[in-house]
UniProtKB/TrEMBL annotation:
HAMAP family membership: MoaA_B
CDD domains in alphabetical order: Radical_SAM, Twitch_MoaA
Species: Centipeda periodontii DSM 2778
Protein name: GTP 3',8-cyclase
Cofactor(s) required for function per UniProt: [4Fe-4S] cluster
Length: 331
């Protein structure tokens, strides 16, 4: 499946819920958000029908996100269903880790291939300040389990924020020195609370410079060495001498990677988003519940994907900007 700019679209991110058991300051208001009604979100059967259509058109990798995906009941059932779809080679999940430790064995049995653990600090007090929830112990237990888990491809995601957690960049990076984990630093994007509350991200150039000072030369690592034929995301990886894992950088603001974008997103209510920052897309829920055949669903998806925007415009406040917050689109 290609868009009009000849980009090969093979990676789907699915937000299964906009609910979360944390309240991270740059992501969600302290009071939380109004929960969508059960009727408004796609059922697992509807999600699987969407994915079957997309897989038939070339989607090979699926990532489950939220909100926090593990707060949705019976998520293991969805993982198992996704793994059974012909053409789907990888099922991954991005999670805050609060519930993962208790559910990991079930998820592995269902076929989960990869986990991204979102963690911005290794300090319990700072964790509470950032997330507004006392869940640090559960996340650390999950992290300990993931450092020795051999069945999963494990990545960690950190958003460095000036004056909040930028003093922990080296400590977080050291996890990849000691364990075969990919530690990724993600540039803060001006979406939702990060935009309205005035948080300031640390430029990736500065992050790289600090890491080079601490660990020496940041030697580039080829994508194939990390993930083989699995569709890749936008991270650029390096590996300092002596590291068992690797360090990754995702800098959507400093260096656009739109020309190689290979993904689309499905929101919890069934909107197929073509770009993180754009309101362009397709209401698959209306098609699914309106009696569309599988052929009609695929045709509508192909028509929508063809019109995927050429690039994001984070720097512009245009009428095409999507007003959804990050917890509503899954990043």
């Amino acid at each position: 499946m290609q868009d009009q700019f000849q980009r090969k679209i093979e990676y789907l991110r699915i937000s299964v819920t906009d609910c979360c058991n944390l309240r991270c300051r740059y992501c969600m208001p302290a009071h939380g958000v109004k929960k969508m009604s059960h009727a408004d979100i796609l059922s697992y059967e509807e999600i699987l029908r969407d994915v079957r259509a997309l897989a038939a058109m070339g989607i090979r990798k699926v990532r489950l996100t939220g909100g926090e995906p593990l707060v949705r009941r019976d998520i293991v059932h969805l993982v198992r269903g996704l793994k059974a779809i012909p053409g789907i080679e990888t099922v991954a999940m991005t999670t805050n880790g609060v519930l993962l430790g208790a559910m990991l064995d079930e998820l592995l049995d269902a076929g989960l291939d990869a986990v991204n653990l979102s963690l911005d600090t290794l300090d319990g007090g700072k964790f509470f300040s950032i997330t507004r929830r006392p869940m640090f112990g559960a996340v650390m237990d999950t992290l300990e389990r993931l450092t020795v888990e051999k069945q999963l491809d494990v990545k960690m995601n950190c958003v460095p924020i000036a004056g909040v957690n930028d003093d922990e960049i080296m400590a977080l990076a050291a996890i990849a020195r000691d364990y075969p984990i990919k530690m990724r630093f993600i540039e803060l994007m001006p979406i939702g609370c990060a935009r309205t509350e005035g948080y300031r991200g640390v430029p990736m150039g500065e992050v790289r410079a600090r890491l080079k000072d601490a660990f020496g030369a940041l030697l580039p690592v080829g994508e194939a060495a990390h993930c083989g034929a699995v569709p890749m995301g936008p991270a650029a990886y390096v590996k300092p001498a002596g590291f068992r894992g690797a360090l990754g950088f995702i800098d959507a603001m400093e260096h656009k990677f739109c020309d190689t974008c290979n993904r689309v997103r499905l929101t919890a209510e069934g909107f197929l988003k073509l770009c993180l920052y754009s309101n362009a897309g397709l209401d698959t829920r209306a098609l699914l519940r309106g009696g569309a055949t599988d052929a009609q669903l695929r045709e509508a998806i192909a028509h929508a994907v063809w019109k995927k925007p050429e690039e994001h415009y984070f720097e512009m406040d245009s009428e095409t900007r999507d007003r959804r917050a990050m917890y509503q689109v899954g990043g």
